[in-house]
Specification:
Immunoglobulin-like; globular; 2 domains; mainly beta; 2 helices; four-stranded antiparallel sheet
Amino acid sequence: MHRILALLALLALLALVAMTGTARPALAVGTRAFAVCTDFSTGSLDAVDLSTRVVTPDAAAIGSDAVARWYQGRVYVVNRFGGDNIQVIDPGAGYATLRQFSVGNGSNPQDIAFVSPTRAYVSRYGANSIAIVDPSTGAGHGFISLAGFADSDGLPEMARMVRVDRWVFVACQRLTNFAAGNPSRIAVIDTQADSVYDVDPATPGIQGITLALRNPVTTFEFDRASTRLLIGCAGDFGVNDGGVEAIDPVALSDLGVVASEATLGGDLSDIAVRDAHHAYALLSAGATCALRSWDPSTGDTLATLYTLAGGFSLPDMELDDRGELYVCRNDFGAPGLLVFSTSNDLLVAGPLGTGLPPVAVTFDHATDAVLASPPAMPAQPAASLAAPWPSPARSSARIAFALARAGETRLELFDASGRRVRTLAAGALAGGRHEVAWDLRDDTRNPLYAGVYMVRLTQDGKSLGTTRVVVVR
């Protein structure tokens, strides 16, 4: 017990030190952007210093159709159509290619999701199975069939992926002759079993999450305030039949349409989320394209930040960890990276010249990080207390618990010294599952300092469990 208390006190101290700025936070801070650039015959990886915005063009030669992911000090380039391989680049070794390994001739890989340093999944547009690879060696370790998600052409058209705790979510477009004529689905992969998870056991067959919209084309974005995954669906191009859809990564269910293309104003190319009430969308409409801000809580468009001639000249964007939005401008007139401040949505730099036009951007911090989620609670649970979600928490958290029976119940939070700082639930509660939201404030509604807090659940004076939550500011 003394060791546990000492560890909690140390964690609280480290969080407080990070908050006051007297020491560098433990989490890595981004220093570079990486732009995938192409003229569709050749490709290059460019690097950008985030402090000076100086571009290092042609840092590495890559395929002409590619995307990039960052993981543990390496850039993983997914060379897609005509490349069919994963290229591992080390920025610390002069952008040398450490290894390059095939994931199947004609497989047209689209994304890579990391389970561990020695295991990753590769989605493949031209195949009906996900490849399991060792990213540290390039060795293959089998496949996960998604044939059950295919449409009449025998392919599920699997595209972007994201990992949330033990689950990997795979967007299956299910197109026929590139037309969005079939319902699109999200396949859920159980990383502990390397198999597709059935989200609806009551229905025959292995079920995924069926989307209301069709043709998911963007990356998955995490809406931290509501703990939702958001993904943009384009539907049929040239028709405002798509939008942004939300997914519950804990209940493994669809939450419906958050914003429509009709309201946003065009075919979606990408989305990014700043906070609960401010997000961004890249849109194409006829001969023009635009960057617009919108409200994820209402779906309403807020403002148009930038417009450009050329229907698909703004293909990708990403938020860095210093409050900036990097947007790819890939027209041949003035190609480069646009940099917007997310504090006021104003253009602060760019286009930063990249030589070849940029089509995708990422950073050397955890933009594609593994997210943490609480374990799902059983339908008829015994008394239990789930880990707060998310943790670390910045603005809010959800705490779920289950009661085996009715009784006088208290859910309380304590700081590292054992002082109670917030009572989240108190009174007679029925048996079953419950969930409360916490705004990271104390009982007097003052914001709590960064640190480690204990959550305790009691019923009729008896402890039913304790857990902890880390607050960061």
